[in-house]
Design a protein that fits this description.
The structure holds 2 protein chains of 2 kinds. By secondary structure, chain A is mainly beta. Chain A contains 1 helix and 8 strands. Chain B folds into 3 domains: about 190 residues, 3-Layer(bba) Sandwich (FAD/NAD(P)-binding domain); about 140 residues, FAD/NAD(P)-binding domain (3-Layer(bba) Sandwich), CATH 3.50.50.60; about 70 residues, Arc Repressor Mutant, subunit A. Chain B contains 18 helices and 22 strands. In chain B, α5 crosses α8. The termini of chain B are close together. Classes of the chains: A mainly beta, B alpha/beta. Bound molecules: FE2/S2 (inorganic) cluster. The site of FE2/S2 (inorganic) cluster (FES) has 12 residues of chain A, from loops.
């Protein structure tokens, strides 16, 4: 669904894995951007109905971009930068992520 | 505990301007910001864009370049800048807690400036939770910070200057939108005309807006005006935007659909510390009550920029400087005469920026179907609560947002009501026939962002350890 602009020049390629599939990203990319450019579809499914969700705000507000990074759930993909070797998975359903009521 | 004269939250135009002003008087300033680079959302990644993407930097124009000057001033200053810091608590006695590199830390400040900017107004329409539906702000961030544009032309839908700005930026980046679907009612232009004489004092912004419209028209971007009944269609992701236009139903296919109904102040922090807020009926949002020096109703807490009411990047900068002068004065670093002398030109510039707001507010008033969505539309995305269920709760006697929260769990998910708060307030107000001012908003409690338990536990240890 996204592509780079023609003048996008970034330092060295970084490789990460999404659901086990290798993805090449660029240093400085947000994890959300790296996944959006690969067209991965849903980032997470909701705890209530299992509906698919993906980034909405890109600024840390909506929490629709939650993924599991290196086994740690509840990571906001729009607030995390890509690191070489990152293992990323979709966050499925509940993961003990509540607000504070 | 770590301490400072002034703690600033947010490194956008307001925070950067205040930091430079106060640090210039010799006081200690800590600048906390969530992002890795200064600029806030409006000047997001400005240093990288300037350095690595001259073409983009060029077409973003002088408005964006202003951010590069602010960032440069920060780099050469004595400000203790701490990027990657997520502030999750501010107490009325001016102690901040923030998370950085997976650790929570405390900071005691003599003054706190909240410069946490704006959020996109939530746009609850059918299908707005589908992957591929994003805010105009989100798409601008992807363009600025990550150099991404839609592969297939996007549909841009809603109302407001930012919608047109994104359309122009996409055009210049070689990714023109497939259509602009504007929800501004056709008679809004006539109805808002009475604000025009005052708005002319801010003629530069008006000319800029006209320039954008011409550029889009020249490029032949289809522009549907006065649209209603917006609905995103799709199964597992967005496939098209459907809407009513000129008495007929239209459908435009796209896998990226941008929604926008203006921006609203991010009041999580000011509500958390207990600042008084007023309902702004023009901008349909709550804003903290501030005096002429940007001081809130809580001693030592100041607010500058869009977080205090939407006025744009330039106004944010002037407000940041004004607050900075006042704070420097209170710290004994600037006498009253100097403060007032330096403030005078800032006040003139600020008044010019504010002159166009009434016109913009009237013209781009959020559409009624977004303020009070139909029963089947999800308003709380986290807990998947529909507008109909909020209305039903009101009929069952639920008087306000906090009761709705315990009834329905709306506002209880990880976003803590940031994306449903205003909508829930509007719906309850409408159902009860009251003004939103009387309905109020969700109570905010720390932590402002969900924290791993381990981090909180480590903080307790630190508090108990001898200093
Ligand atoms: S996309 Fe909204 S929090 Fe990440």
């Amino acid at each position: 669904m996204f592509r780079r602009t023609s003048d996008a020049i970034r330092p060295a390629g970084i490789s990460i894995h999404f659901e086990g599939r290798p993805i090449v990203a660029q240093a400085g990319d947000s994890l959300a951007a790296a996944l959006l450019i690969e067209d991965v579809g849903a980032f997470r499914s909701t705890p209530v109905s299992g509906a698919p969700r993906a980034p909405y705000c890109m600024m840390g507000v909506c929490f629709e971009c939650l993924v599991e990074v290196d086994g740690v759930p509840n990571q906001q993909a729009c607030m995390v930068q890509v690191r070489d070797g990152m293992q990323v998975r979709r966050q499925r359903g509940p993961a003990g992520m509540d607000g504070n009521g | 505990m770590d301490s400072t004269d002034l703690a600033i939250i947010g490194a956008g135009p307001a925070g950067l301007a205040a930091a430079a002003t106060v640090a210039g008087t010799g006081a200690s300033v800590v600048l906390l910001d969530e992002q890795p680079l200064p600029g806030g959302q409006i000047y997001r990644g400005v240093e990288m864009v300037q350095m690595l993407r001259p073409k983009t930097f060029g077409f973003f124009g002088p408005e964006f370049a202003a951010g590069a000057d602010l960032a440069k001033a920060l780099r050469g200053s004595a400000v203790d800048y701490r990027p990657g810091s997520v502030v999750w608590d501010v107490s009325p006695d001016l102690v901040l807690h923030y998370s950085r590199d997976g650790r929570s830390r405390g900071l005691a400040a003599r003054h706190v400036l909240i410069a946490s900017g704006a959020l996109e107004r939530p746009v609850p329409i059918p299908g707005w939770t589908l992957p591929g539906v994003m805010t105009v702000g989100a798409l601008q961030i992807l363009l600025k910070a990550d150099a991404l544009v839609p592969r297939v032309p996007a549909v841009l839908a809603g109302a407001g200057p930012l919608l047109l700005l994104l359309a122009v930026q996409y055009l210049r980046a070689g990714a023109p939108p497939t259509a602009i679907v504007e929800t501004v009612p056709k008679d809004a232009y006539r109805r808002s005309a009475r604000h025009l004489p005052q708005a002319l004092r801010g003629w530069r912004s008006l000319l800029k807006g006209r320039g954008w419209m011409r550029e889009l028209a020249r490029a032949g971007v289809p522009w549907y005006r006065g649209c209603t009944g917006l609905r995103v269609e799709g199964g597992d992701r967005a496939e098209a935007l459907a809407f009513d236009h000129d008495g007929g139903r239209r459908r435009i296919a796209a896998d990226v659909i941008a929604l926008h109904q203006g921006v609203v102040p991010n009041t999580q922090l000011t509500r958390l510390v207990g600042c008084a807020h007023d309902w702004d009926s023009g901008q349909r949002c709550f804003r903290p009550r501030l005096d002429a020096w940007q001081a809130s109703t809580v001693e030592g807490i100041w607010v500058a920029g869009d977080g205090g009411g939407i006025a744009g990047a330039k106004a944010a900068e002037w407000q940041g400087r004004l607050a900075g002068l006042a704070i420097a004065g209170r710290l004994g670093r600037l006498d009253e005469r100097d403060r007032d002398r330096q403030a005078a030109p800032l006040r003139t510039a600020l008044a010019r920026e504010l002159a166009v707001r009434p016109l913009l507010d009237a013209l781009y008033h959020p559409s009624p179907e977004v303020l009070c969505p139909a029963d089947d539309v999800i308003v709380c995305r986290c807990e998947e609560v529909t507008a109909g269920r909020v209305r039903e709760a009101v009929r069952l006697g639920c008087p306000g947002p906090n009761q709705a929260k315990s009834f329905l769990r709306c506002g209880m998910g990880p976003c803590q009501g940031r994306l449903c708060g205003l909508t829930v307030t509007e719906i309850i107000a409408r159902e009860r026939g009251l003004d939103p001012a009387e309905i109020g908003s969700y109570r905010i409690r720390p932590p402002l962002k969900p924290l791993p338990l381990a981090e909180l536990a480590a903080l307790d240890d630190e508090a108990e350890a001898p200093v």
